[in-house]
Automatic annotation (TrEMBL):
One of its GO terms (molecular function) is oxidoreductase activity. The keyword Transit peptide does not apply. This is DHR13 reductase. Keywords: Oxidoreductase. InterPro entries: NAD(P)-bd_dom_sf (IPR036291), SDR_fam (IPR002347). Belongs to the short-chain dehydrogenases/reductases (SDR) family. Pfam families: adh_short (PF00106).
Length: 112
């Protein structure tokens, strides 16, 4: 939703292979179908990613590096605010991990 969906739509309209990295399979798949229909680009795909989980970030990066021949653009758009204080299963504060640590790790892993 929001800015991320708009950016994905623009990339798809430019005929880019576009990977939507979403926490929710249902919401992500709905966005994929909407973007494919609006852009006419069938190369819009969904991959699950939860940036509050470093294990999820690592798994996503491994899959992208294994499956994609190249990566030209990365848009780090995930973010949360106003969540109650919570510690993840990895022992990290959830908001900080979602907004900073997860995207930082993802970027560094995808750099190769």
């Amino acid at each position: 939703a929001g800015i991320g969906k708009c950016v994905a739509m623009d990339l798809a309209r430019r005929n880019a292979r576009t990977i939507l990295a979403c926490r929710s399979r249902a919401r992500g798949q709905a966005a994929v179908e909407e973007i494919r229909a609006a852009s006419g680009n069938p190369a819009v795909v969904l991959r699950l990613l939860d940036t509050s989980s470093l294990a999820s970030v690592r798994a996503f990066a491994r899959a992208v590096l294994r499956e994609e021949p190249r990566l030209d653009v990365l848009v780090n758009n995930a973010g949360v605010t106003g969540l109650p204080f919570n510690i993840t299963s990895e022992g990290l504060e959830e908001t900080f991990t979602t907004n900073y640590l997860g995207p930082f790790l993802l970027t560094n892993l995808l750099l190769g």
